[in-house]
Amino acid sequence: MKRIIILSTLIALVSAVSCRQEDGPENDSRYFAPAVSFGSDSYTVNPSQGGLDVDVVLSRPASQPLSIGLVVTSSLKEGVQYTAPAPVVEIAKGEDKARIHLALVDDEIWVESSWILLTLKPGQRYTVNPGNNISARINVNKEISLPIFGFDQPQKPVISNPYLAESLQFELVCERAPIASQTIVLEFGDLVCGEDFLVDGKATTTVEFPAGATSKTLEINILKKDISGYDKTARLTIIPEKGKYSVIAGQESVSVHLSDPVVDFSKFFRTSALNDGKGFQIRQGIKAADGSWNGNTTVDMGLSSEGSNYLRNYRNMYDHPSFSCRANSSTSQMFRLTDFFPLHVRPNEVTILDYGNDQGHREFSPADSLMRFVLDYGETQKGRIYLEKPRSFKAYIGSYAAWQDKSSGLAAWIMDSRATGGNIDASTHSALTGAINVTLVKLEGTFDFSNSSEPVLLTAWFESDSENFMKADAVNGKDPATTLGLTKEGGAWKVEYKLWPR
Fold first, then answer.
1. What is residue 120's three-state secondary structure?
2. For the chain, which end, N or C, has fewer CB atoms within 10 Å of the first or last residue's CB respectively?
């Protein structure tokens, strides 16, 4: 009985303590962070209203001042077409909401549909629940009676090599046909009209859209730019004009990629030139009448400059160890031009003269920036070859016997090379009685460095000031037109070549 009385007393004491007034919920010191959201996740407004208010709502009154982070993004231009609220929304203690204002500038908005997106940032003294309205999209709709222009978007990326100076066509469309002819203003990235491009063949950034039309073809003429490695992306954009016309949201511009990639010649440049000369040894065959490739003599070729898409050929000379003079490396002549003059090679008396002890060392002059390589779109090893301008090659002719004369103890050409330092153009020797010139007037070609048997194919057209150009040597049975299968087209001789690395 005594135990029951003591237990009852303890229960009463505990109950009395738990019911003390100072331990009520109003004295609970724990902090409960309010959840923050927008009053709605979507709003619609007309710019003529000047703007709208958006409520930021708390799930419970703030027990202390709060600063809520806000992120604003939009398709409109801030500070021009709308004024964004401060990036921080201040909530006073005891408040359960705050109102922010978005101001719209009606006269600056000339698209029918645009948007502003508000997003709440997470914080330490409040929470954002992804399931609530943590973002609010404001749809800005404006009824515009003016013409609305845009581009019919291309199905494929628009790519052009500025070296090719191509003309690109785009389709301008209008959702509401203009009553009168409308002048549209264009912008093409940071490209300069008249220097980098033309619009419909003119140095102007405006285009006339016909009255009553719903579409018009626009032509952008890319002006030639010869820069190996050039790469730029520019957007062709319709610039809206207040009170005159607007643009279709999402269709106001098209992207153009201008690219002239650097060609990788590593598979073509395989064997270095002889005698530590410049460039690499490239074999060259001429297509014969039966379709076979005649001959495989070499030419020394290399880049015109570091990173260039141009190739050049070299006149490589070396200090001849037997004659103590400068002499040409053998068979390094571009296009095998000597083959086109059978009347100027041995055993004829008047031959091509140069520094070297045999006919294989007698050459025409070299040429820089001879061939321009351009990759096909999307390719890394294939493309086309162009001739930037006609190129001329010169060789000296004269008496073979006089050039080989040894009355002074050494051949005349050796003595002359010592005197000129190997510069045949500086020679005044009496054996040299004239010069012949060959002009490359046209060149077409393709390259495919993944094809080891025919990496470079060329068709060239030549003219010459020499009466003996392509003339047969009947006495010795040599005729380029038959042995090499060459043909004449419109006054020029057509020759087909294959180039491949040695």
1. strand
2. N
Distance from chain centroid for Cα 251: 23
**For 281, phi and psi rounded to 5 degrees?**
-80, 120
What residue spans of 277-326 are helical by DSSP H?
Answer: none
Q: What is the dihedral of CA 478, 480, 484, 486, to 10 degrees?
A: -160
Query: Is the Cβ–Cβ distance between 183 and 206 less than 8 Å?
Result: yes
Using CA atoms, how far apart are residues 350 and 123, in angstroms rounded to an integer? 95
pLDDT value at 24 more than 90 = no
Is the torsion defined by CA of 419, 424, 425, 429 positive or negative? Answer: positive
Render the burial of 44-56: b for 16+ CB within 10 Å, e for the rest.
Answer: ebebeeebbebeb
Alpha-carbon dihedral angle through residues 292, 296, 299, 303, given to the nearest 10 degrees: 60
What pLDDT was estimated at residue 3?
A: 43
Could you tell me the two tokens for 220? 């952008």
Q: Give the three-class secondary structure for 16.
A: helix
State the Cα angle at 11 between 7 and 17, rounded to 5°.
145
How many angstroms separate the most distant Cα atoms in the chain? 155
Is the pLDDT confidence value at 16 over 80? no
Tokens of 268: 């073509």
Side chain identity at residue 467, one-letter code: E
At 107, the pLDDT band (50, 70, 90 cuts) reads confident
Neighbours of 131 (CB within 10 A): 8
Could you tell me what percent of the chain has a pLDDT over 90?
78
Rounded CA separation 359/24 (Å): 117
- The fraction of the chain above a pLDDT of 70, given in percent, is 94
Q: State the Cα–Cα distance between residues 363 and 436, nearest whole angstrom.
A: 11
**Which has more pLDDT, 219 or 107?**
219
- Among 190, 307, 201, smallest CA distance to 260 is for 307
Average pLDDT of the chain, as a whole number: 91
Distance, CA of 178 to CA of 176 (rounded, Å): 6
- Over residues 303-327, the mean pLDDT reads 94
Q: Which amino acid is located at 501 in the chain? A: P
CA dist 175 and 36 (Å) reads: 42
pLDDT of residue 13: 39
Helices (H) and strands (E) in the chain, counts: 4, 32
In this predicted structure, what is the pLDDT of residue 332? 81
Backbone φ and ψ of 336, nearest 5°: 50, 45
